[in-house]
Amino acid sequence: MERNKVTPSRKGLKALACRRCRSRKQKCTGSRPCDSCTAANTECISSEPVRRKARVCTEYTRALEERIVDLESQIPDKRSENLSASRQTPTQESPHQRGNEADHVPQASPAPKPPYPRSMPHVGASSDSAPLRCSAPGASLALPFPRVVEGLPDTHGQCGHSSLLIGILATLTGTETSGFPQKQSGGPIAPIFSQFTQQVSQVDHVPRLSNEASDRLVQIYLERVNPRYPFLHLATFIGWYESWKSRSQMDRASHQQSLWKDYFVTMVHAVALLLTPRVSVDDIATSQSLYNTAMQYIAHVFAQPDSVLHAQAYLLLTLHALHSPCSQMIVTIVSAMMRYCVMAQLHLAESELQVPNPAFSLEVQTRRRVFWSAYALDRFISWIYHIPNNINDEHISVELFSNVGDADLHHEGSEDSRIRIETPSQKTHVSPALHLFRCRRIQSRIVSTMMRSDFKEIDASTTWREHMLGELDSWRSQLRLLSDVASKSYTSDRWVGMAYNYTILLLHQPTKANVCNGFGDRSVPACVQIAITFRTFQKDQQTAQLWPGLLSQVAVGITLLYCFWATPPQYQTIAYRTREVPDALRACSTALAILAERWVQAEPLRDVFDVLAKEVPLYGTTEEDPPPRRISAESAFYIQSQMPLLTSIIMHRGVLRMIREMITEDFPRSLNEEFHRQLRASHDQTMLGSLGSHICSEECPFFREPAHPGLMAGVDAQAFPLLENGIGGAYGVDDETLMFPFLFGSAEF
To answer: Biased composition, Pro residues: where in the chain (predicted)?
Structure first.
């Protein structure tokens, strides 16, 4: 038999020894077949060269490859074609520079089954992902394997954890339950179809909206979200949206590189559905299905080289997450969003593109809008849960975005990028966001001060608190003139007043030690006004159903009850005895009951508040004689049994402290008279004393200029020049633009 003998190089003799010779530890001639195998009349099998760096068994690798081939054979042919078509090098052009191009995007594969109870309607299901359960209170997460979704780009050259990161991001808001009460699968459900979900078809199990419904959802987003968080440039996003609408279902496979646009359009639809005036069960189910569909495209977003685009994706995830009844998940996604902005150096002025006219630069202003939108959401969550900010204000050097409309922003190098002068007095659609961010910066300084390890020493003097009150009163005085009394929306004086009162509560968290020292007199009226105003907006359907909004109402109701519990009857001032107090408690109870219909996880919050409202007497009067020493044992036992759940949901240490005190301690029915006189005298002396010194951080931007003693008598906006450099620097101090309160609020974002 003729044999083709291959003589290897001298250096490779040892590496090319056949398996038989290597196992018998004998010399191999290196030819194939070798002399030893020829003499033994056995098959001569070559062995692979020995690599010193190889750490994976060859047989194990081959077994894995066979398993992969077996699994790929079970995937539909269409998906295999899309997977291979997606392995194209992504373009390096900035998405913000090609937003209006009319490219086409392939159709998405079937979305995974929405994580809702079986009794709730859903658009489609897929068995391509295996759920990973998480034992978080009130929610469980379903983690789809990120590499099985259709059309994922090649991650060659990227971090090895990219797929895992994308999978985590894709499921941070994919909760197992929307919060609606669980029902028996066999029971009938009354069909509740809105104008949007009626138009959803189930072609290929992918949610499809009619052009009319899609246009309406985009309009809702641009009207209710974009003025407060303008991180999406209007013309750029409209360009993405128009190209998305123009694509046919047949030619999407040839445009895999543009699938990142589908993520943004679909996420805008998903968020807008939750902001409609009447959100039905079907709207929420459709929003979740749209979210699941958007997650099929998130890998394409992170495959783009633009870090600003990645931050915008985080922001949309955060907006959607605010409607989910899981506090841990909300805090996690907000922290991830802000941390990514820091890693991308969006908070640093030196990392910006150096252009001759940054106020009108689309690239610079989009970058700033993205960061400050993330900043506002981060401060919102820090305030709701009373947790530290994810980045200190002293570490931020980037300026606020300019008061320039989208139509006046242009790419660098274009004919319209010539040097122009910004007009501070001109109102634009970003003016509301500038005012929102100013209040968030005030709240940020309050929270960061209260989070300090030496806060007890700082709080021993009321100087820092009076400085904050001066800045807050200055903000309110600048907003009041443009509030619309007749309006039922966010331009009304009621809404602006509620935002002011929220910050008053943040500054004056009552304790047994300070409630009779003016804190109760400030907290009770603030709670009353917030509860009544929120209920009014809820009846007028002007508030979105946000989980942090629910928690803010819980905090307001608990604080109001605590003030009555902690203040002895003889020290309850006229602020406690207003006839609006019972109305406020009823309004808070009703608001919590309505929100509990939206989320089953909110039912313990509603029940605990109702129990405390029945136990805590108002105006120091009770039907019992003598009055009880503490709340009933039955109520205390019930609330105590709910405390582990309340701790994981509320997270606000001050609110949890007030609940624990009310269920474990006696009513403070008396107060040492001498101690009370000392408190009052100390409080009055501080209020009348000089405010020239402070104990805040030396880096505090509010206090680098000495304040004058008459600050509280007549608020002077010039007393805080460095704070105004960020926002007021673009305005005149008395400019009515600075008083524009449009769309500011706490109950909705």
So the answer is: 109-118
